[in-house]
Amino acid sequence: MRLKGLLMLSTSLLLVGCSPRVATSFWRIGTPAASVRPGYAVLHEGKKVRHCYPITEWTDTPDNDTYHSLHHHGVAVESELMAYRIYFDKKQTIDVYCKRTPRLELGSSYWYPNDSLLALGYGDDILRVSGTVGVGSVKYWNGKKHTHIEPVAERQQRIVRQSRSAATIEVAVKDWQIEGKLVDMAVQYTLRAGHRAMRCDVTLSEPIEGLCTGVQSIPAKPTEQQQSDWVCDELPNGVLLASWGTDWPVNDTVKYAKETVGLAVFIPKEYAGEPVYDKSNNLCILRQTEDRSQKSGSYHAHFYLTCVGATKENAPVATNMSEWKDYLHSWTAGLK
Question: What is the secondary structure of 76-89 as a DSSP string?
C-alpha cells in the first residue's frame, strides 16, 4: 500500500501545472501541391523537408509503401507522459517516445525533435525496436519464433476517437492468410490523459491459435555481454511480461546517448495462454473468447502495455529492474 501511495503521489506531482490531455498524430507525406489541403504543414526531420497533411484514416494494399508514405511511419497517440506510434506495414510494431517533462509534444516535434526542441527539454524516441515485438505489438507465434502480420489483402490505420481525456487508434488487416484460413483483425489501442499505459483490444473474425504479444529484449539484438533483464510472472489475475535494458535508441551513436528503458505487458488471466520466447522477445499466447452478441461471430482478447524511460524522464517511476517490478506489481493489481 505504501508503494502504491508513493506511485500515485509521484504521478500527481508530475502533473502539477499540466492539464491532463491526449492527442493523436497522423501525417501523410505529399508535395507542395498539398498546400490546398486543410492542416497542411511543412515539417522538418533533420535536413529533410516534408510537405505533409493530417489524415484520420488510410486503407491500402501491401503493394503500396505505406510505411514511407507517412511522416513518423504510422498513426501515433500521446499523453503528457508517453507517446506511442504503430508502424504501418507488416510489422505493425509499437515504438515509444518518452517525455522529460509532462506535456504534449508531437504537435511541435512530430516525433522527431530538432536540436532547438531538445535544448528546450523535449523528449524523444527511446527504443530501437528493429524486427522485434516492441512493446505490446500483436504478432504470430509459428512454434519457434514470432512472425509479422502477412500476407494480407489490405491494411488500415485510423484514429477511432479522440477527446481531451482519452484517444483510441487502430491498426487493422483484411484477409490475413494464417493457419489455413482468411482472418480479419483489428487492434485498438486506448490511451488516457495522465497515464503512461494503454489498453489494447483485439477483435478477429476467426480465432488464431498462435496469436501473441509481449515485450522485446533491450537491446533488440542482445549479445552475451549485454543481455536484457526479462520477467515472466504468473500472477493471480494474469501474466506479466517485462524487460529492462540499455541501448542506443537509433543507429546514430554519436549524437544520441544510450537509453535505459523498461517495457511491460499485462495479459488478464482469461486471455493469457502459454508463455513463449525467442532470442529477442518475451511473449505470451493470446487466448480469444467468442463474442456471441455479434451475428457474424467475432473473437476478442485484451491486454495492457506500459513503459518507462529511466534515463529520459526527469522523475521516472523506476530507475532499475527491481523498482520496475515493484511498480508493475502495483500497476497490474487492479487490471482485469
Answer: EEE-SSEEEEE-SS
* Position 2 confidence tier, pLDDT thresholds 50, 70, 90: very low
Tell me: pLDDT of 4 over 50: no
Q: Got the DSSP string for 147-186? A: E-S-S-SEEEEEEEEE-SSEEEEEEEEEEEEETTEEEEEE
Amino acid at position 128, single letter: R
Please give the backbone phi and psi of residue 11, each rounded to the nearest 5 degrees, phi first.
Answer: -65, -40
Q: Using alpha carbons only, what angle is made at residue 321 by residues 268 and 261, rounded to the nearest 5 degrees?
A: 85
Indicate the burial class of 82 (C-beta count within 10 angstroms; 0-12, 13-18, 19 or more). Answer: buried
* Segments of 205-256 assigned E as strands: 211-216, 229-235, 238-247
Q: At what angle do helices 321-332 and 2-14 cross, to 10 degrees?
A: 100
How sure is the predictor about 193, in pLDDT bands with cuts at 50, 70 and 90?
very high
Contact 106, 256 (CB under 8 A): no
Cell, residue 56: 484520420
Q: What do you get for the CA distance between the two ends of the chain, in Å?
A: 19
Let me know how long the chain is.
336
Q: How confident is the model at residue 6 (pLDDT cuts 50, 70, 90)?
A: very low
Predicted local confidence at residue 162, as pLDDT: 95
Of 180, 167, 7, 150, residue with least CA distance to 67: 150
Give residue-wise pLDDT tens across range 265-275: 999 999 999 99
Burial letters 215-248, b for 16+ CB under 10 A, else e: bbbbbbebeeeeebbbbbeebebbbbbbbbbebe
Residue 132: Cβ within 10 Å count = 27
